[in-house]
Amino acid sequence: MSTEKQKTFFENLKKLYGKEPLPSYEQIAKDFGFKHKNSVWQYFKKLKDEELILEKNGKFIINPSCFGAIMFTTAVRAGFAAVGEEYIDKRVSLDEDFELDNPSTFMFKVSGDSMVNAGIFDGDTVIIRKTASANDGDIVLAFIDNGFTLKRFRKKGSKVWLQPENPDYPDIIPEETLTIFGVASGIARKL
After folding, report:
1. Whole-model pTM?
2. What is the mean pLDDT, run by run of 10 residues, along the chain of 191 residues?
3. Pairing assessment for the beta strands 53-56 and 59-62 based on DSSP bridges
4. What residues are labeled active site?
């Protein structure tokens, strides 16, 4: 964008409306304190030219690639410091990467330490893709006998069981029922 005013207008659009379809020029003018909707139209013309605003199903939306955290393409070493060779960045949206807007995706907080060797710790948020089936080795949210649990799904022939990722816990073999509710697709953790 060429001016600070245009950048500020665009950032305010993102903050106020997010990923929702944008309202009418009149409503935006009112929300932003403009006297005339023509001011909004002028901003939209520039933002559409730069593909920051798109038209979808007869409505204007902010380009989804404008949301998310900035991710640098050069990895940062966890060991000795190194000079970064590239500083190219892009926006990364966890909504898109983990399909968080999809109705078949949900999240929950983990309680306990039975999955620590899989890198899942007490207090982590696990992202689950809803499905009734799993492959051997998948980490699943399952209902077994009398409660929900997060474990690694194991299957050998007709035998199925849930395996913790902590040697302090035994495998769980269903006595009555084992229902898969979803497969883990990621975790989120606050430091």
Report:
1. 0.56
2. 83 87 91 90 90 88 77 54 52 60 77 94 89 94 88 94 95 90 87 77
3. antiparallel
4. 114, 151
